[in-house]
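Inputs:
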Amino acid sequence: MPPMIRHLGDRGLLVELGRGIDPAVNRRVKQLHRIIARERPHGVVETVPAYASLLVVFDPLQASPEALKRQIIGLCDFEDAGPTEDRAVVEIPVVYGGEAGPDLDAVAAHHGLSREAVIGLHTGTVYRVYMIGFTPGFPYMGELPEALDTPRRDTPRTHIPKGSVAIAQRQTGIYPAVSPGGWQIIGRTPVALFDPRKETPSFLTMGDAVRFTPITGEEAAQWPL
Amino acid sequence: MAAVDLLEIITPGILASIQDAGRQGFGEIGVAPSGAADSYACRIGNLLVGNLENAAAIEITLMGFQARFLTETVFAVTGADLQPSLNGRALPMWTALKAAPGDILDLPSPVCGCRAYLSVGGGLHIPAVMGSRSTNIGAGFGGFDGRMLRAGDRLTGCRPGHYLACAGRSIPDALKALPVSEWVLRVIPGPQHDQFPETSRLQFYEVAYTVSGKSDRTGVRLEGPTIGKEAGAPDSILSEGILCGAIQIPGDGKPIILLNETVTGGYRKIAVVIAADLPLLGQLAPGDTVRFQETDLSSALDLLRRVEAAVDWVRGNFSD
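Outputs:
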């Protein structure tokens, strides 16, 4: 499918490579993001990948949007890397429920499931990191099993603790720092998701495969950081 | 190189933070650019005191800022007119001036505009994090210990004594971006503008909106008639990359103009403010009125060239 390119003002082009939350579309977004990083078309400042689109930010004094559009369309002519791309599964330990996961009981009640069944469903799936956004290092992961499809909280929280593992609709995510947010909090991880002092500040990147594993509060307290 | 004690914050006011030209290239990991909300005022302030235009300055919001100089320094105040004074004597803005140890700089209350910039000769001695000295207040890194400034903070500078000869520099009135209280922002129709009913699109360009007191460095929130969406359309869309200047219409129909602290978003963008007008967004103060005027890419480029020509003139005039 040829990309659809829309203007985001006079210094952004939104390149849409498909629709919806789809691993194949997201893989193409990641490939185009890498290709543009490698080819560095003149005037491009940065690219921001999301579920199904890539935002290309450019300096309008250096590049004309029409010329850049033609160049991007040319760069979109690549072979799909396919699902064989190298994705070692990243294990993320989580303390579920209690103070660490204040919404676990409500989520269980919403679906008529036991706490253990919710944890089993959440840990039983390997998720794809579709994008990082909202706050530095926040991974949008999917897809959550349909049996856990839960709406956001009616009233967002103003203070969600660092490391909170949350779900919303068919997505799961982790809050890397204290922030407001409306997702349902089911647990907490001791893993640091974002550290600006590190060579690679974000623990996860787009395209990673993630599996959650349950741990106890004691194990979390002793987790090597 | 030894850092020199430069100034001490007596009171930071509503919000004071270290900002520079921002942090580019980390959108992939959710890191927004941050940076001076009025980039023009920040760039000119730096050039006046002899710095590179992308040096770090103190961004001061609306009122209540007071600081004491700890060494002989050249400084400039640009941006919003917050009635700046030194030891009680009114100061000219957009001008490089000399301060002596013990001098007290006061920015008590706004005449117009929202953010003023305090630049000092030699720049602030602040470590760069991920390529920038800007404070990412939400994520708590960059700038001064990753946070807004507090009373008692002591900032250090880099060789302020070498910049004293810049004192006395100023720029022609025509190059001073003087804030107003009734704004016209020029926009390009947004990527989802065709998903709004025609009546909503027409209304967007006809209404004078009022800047809400709930605005912050994340976004300028507007009060006024709500923008309706097509019947049955969901409130949000699949999250996608966004930029400073994007005008989102959330579920309640009240427009939000995004500033530099967000990298992705899931609301429809009815329009996007052009690059030439982005510095104005940093000066929209609560209670100001805002109208939007549609323009095209070719006019937007001409207007941006004019802004850059002004900066070029200042840079050229002071490079010796």
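Remarks. The interface with chain A takes residues 24-32, 129-130, 136, 138-142, 187-191, 238-243, 245-246, 263-264, 269, 272-275, 297, 300-301, 304-305, 308 of chain B (CB under 8 Å). DSSP finds three helices and 20 strands in chain B.
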